[in-house]
Design goal:
With 290 residues, chain A is mainly α. In chain A, 71% of the residues lie in helices and 3% in strands. In chain A, helix 1 runs antiparallel to helix 9 and helix 11 packs across helix 12. Chain B is α/β, with parallel strands linked by helices. Chain B is globular. The chains are: A mainly alpha (290), B alpha/beta (389).
Chain lengths: 290, 389
């Protein structure tokens, strides 16, 4: 029982990271109708950015983390201005390949730093152990869960109460009408890419205490994408919930099911989820909504 | 006669002649140099091994060249980066065979890379020496051009598991393995060892390559009440498994394969990996407590590459050293066949790195089959046994 509780919390923490990356997918998709295949690379770049500023340039960790997230967000905006903007109105494949290519370039850029290509690092944050009754928890996991809750609240407030947030939502409902109402569509697209990139970088920083910082840490996006799909690709709370759901399912299946079955479980659940909730968790049960 | 025909005929004849001449000399060997190729991983998932191996080889070849070369020939190492991608490896092999005319391939890196490129190399009649792929097909069935220095994981892990279980009298042995050929290979070794001792493998659980969190696997092994866990993991997962176990207060002994025997394991893992056992096929070159020759070598490596050497640097250096010594022994009339037949009678005694003895014969092209046990004590690997026969 205790083991199950321990594993459950690990699953929630990892699921939060899946959820955050899924959020970044959804944020971009909603505003620009583009599926970004560079979220994993943005995540990795963010983590390495913070690491480089902290260990390489000697910045305090907090400042390095902030600068890395801001830097990657800026990078997202630059990518949008320079390249992705030109894919609007073209077939979906154009944008997909464009993001894929930009991702490869990012990866190549990071890999060209020998210290990054050859080593694995650990960020010196939240490496302690917290005793909570009979449970022994890693501070890193609690940090991830806490930060995810905080980010969810901040994003909810942003989309509900600020002008810019409302404009982004309007854009995702109907771009043409939003434009007629005076929403600056181009600027909003830039903002959406910047937010999506920054969120991925943040997820990378939160992943760092759980796992390590290395060139292939972006592979986690492969798990986050199903979460985004399961969440319906347009629902922010849905993406977060689906991410946590997948994380927990994966962890508990590893503990309880026979050897060899557990790797199939997230995908079986994904299929079941898509069958029962074809519009994703965010839209409720099949048939509901419309 | 057509006035253009005669020069054309002459040109044709000279091309044919020079082609025939080229065929009669050994590829990659001229009076002044020997071209050696390597297909490494400098940008992919195992670049952290590829780079130090390359640097180790470069250092040894440069030393040989500085000393006047091998029978007056300089050794030129041509490095191709496969990024651990078999397709790129095949292209690299063709390029090295055709354009660079490599005399031998040395220390090609990664099993998928080696499996894809080895046929190209061997079919072209070039030497395939000491690849970083612990796969039987790199030396069996016996082939005149294939030589290997590293035994399959199965061989090392069988001996290591047997030794550990006997010495500590473990009752409940378990296995955590990567869900691929590497993990299965280790599993075979562990099962064979336990089978010989008449003990069961109580629990085994796997993870996918690149997994980020091993908490459910560790909880499962703990639930099975294991007192000994063999880890078929690489560095990151080794640290993750040990950290998770120690975090939940579980103190079972763990033994990792040679893939986890790396200074990175204790650098990343810190206190959590203290007490971890590992299999070593060559000791890590620690500067502290090094013998004089080793300390001198470490200093030269640092000066040259501005980085600390690791066990992979030593491997690269050792393999290059074996090449140089064999080429020297083969005499000034160097041919591929003469090199191979010379290597078949070479034995390399233990050196200041603490390496095992490598010995080849006409019927056995695997240089060494033995690993030794090490344990992380006070933040560094300490050797705790000799090579286990």
């Amino acid at each position: 029982m205790l083991a199950a509780a321990q594993v459950l919390i690990s699953g929630v923490a990892l699921g939060c990271v899946y959820g955050l990356v899924a959020l970044s997918f959804v944020l971009i998709y909603k505003a620009t109708e583009t599926v970004s295949f560079m979220q994993g690379e943005l995540l990795m770049t963010g983590a390495f950015g913070a690491l480089g500023l902290h260990l390489g340039a000697g910045w305090p960790l907090g400042a390095a983390a902030l600068a890395a997230v801001a830097g990657v967000a800026l990078l997202g905006a630059v990518f949008e201005r320079a390249a992705l903007r030109r894919a609007v109105g073209r077939p979906h494949l154009v944008a997909v390949l464009l993001t894929f290519g930009l991702g490869l370039m990012l990866r190549g850029a990071v890999a060209s730093v020998p210290a990054a290509a050859q080593e694995t690092y650990r960020l010196p944050v939240a490496i302690d152990v917290v005793q909570l009754g009979p449970l022994t928890l890693a501070a890193g996991q609690l940090l991830v869960i806490g930060a995810t809750v905080l980010i969810a609240v901040v994003l909810a407030l942003f989309f509900r109460t600020t002008r810019v947030g409302l404009a982004l939502r309007a854009l995702s409902e109907d771009a043409r009408i939003a434009a007629l109402m005076g929403v600056p569509v181009a600027r909003m697209h830039t903002l959406a890419w910047a937010l999506g990139a920054g969120l991925a970088a943040l997820a990378g920083l939160l992943l760092a205490p759980i796992t390590f910082i290395h060139l292939n840490m972006g592979l986690i996006a492969l798990k986050a994408f199903p979460a985004a799909v399961l969440g319906g690709l347009t629902s922010l709370p849905g993406a977060l919930a689906a991410g946590i759901f997948l994380g927990v399912a994966e962890a508990l299946a590893g503990l309880a099911l026979p050897e060899g079955v557990k790797d199939v479980v997230p995908y079986v659940l994904l299929m079941l989820g898509l069958l029962l909730f074809p519009r994703g968790f965010g839209a409720g049960a099949a048939g509901a909504g419309r | 006669m057509n006035p253009f025909l005669k020069p054309a005929l002459v040109a044709f004849a000279s091309v044919v002649l020079s082609a025939a001449q080229a065929a009669s000399v050994t590829p990659g060997v001229t009076d002044r140099e020997i071209v050696v190729g390597t297909i490494s991983d400098l940008s992919g998932p195992i670049a952290l091994l590829g780079v130090p191996v390359r640097d180790g080889m470069l250092m040894r070849f440069d030393e040989a060249n500085a000393g006047g070369g091998v029978h007056g020939r300089r050794i030129r190492l041509v490095v191709e980066d496969s990024g651990y991608d078999p397709k790129r490896a095949v292209l690299a092999a063709r390029k090295l065979v055709q354009r660079d005319q490599a005399f031998a391939f040395i220390a090609d890196m990664g099993t998928p890379v080696v499996m894809a490129s080895m046929p190209v190399i061997v079919d072209a009649g070039r030497l395939h020496l000491f690849p970083f792929s612990p796969h039987e097909s790199t030396y069996l069935p016996l082939h005149p051009l294939k030589f290997q220095n590293f035994a399959p994981y199965q061989t090392y892990m069988e001996a290591a598991t047997r030794h550990m279980v006997q010495a500590h009298d473990y009752r409940r042995s378990c296995l955590l393995y990567q869900d691929d050929d590497y993990g299965l290979e280790v599993m075979k070794g562990v099962e064979a060892a336990l089978g010989k001792l008449g003990r069961p493998l109580v629990e085994k659980t796997s993870y996918k390559r690149g997994a980020t969190d091993l908490s459910s696997q560790i909880a499962r092994l703990r639930g099975a009440d294991c007192d000994f866990v063999v880890l078929a993991t690489v560095v990151r997962e080794t640290v993750a498994a040990m950290s998770e176990a120690r975090r939940i207060g579980w103190k079972a002994d763990m033994l990792v394969t040679a893939s986890g025997y790396s200074a990175q394991t204790h650098e990343l893992g810190g206190a959590a990996v203290e007490g971890l056992y590992g299999v070593s096929v060559l000791p890590h070159p620690y500067a502290e407590g090094a013998n004089r020759q080793l300390a001198d070598w470490i200093q030269r490596y640092r000066t040259r590459f501005n980085a600390d050497p690791n066990v992979w640097s030593v491997m690269g250096y050792t393999l290059a050293d074996m090449f140089v010594r064999t080429a020297e022994a083969a005499g000034p009339q160097l041919t591929i066949d003469r090199f191979a037949r010379t290597l078949e009678h070479m034995s390399f005694t233990r050196d200041y790195f603490g390496s095992p003895e490598y010995r080849f014969s006409p019927t056995d092209h695997l240089g060494n089959r033995y690993g030794r046990l090490a344990q992380i004590r006070n933040g560094k690997w300490e050797l705790i046994s000799d090579y286990l026969k």
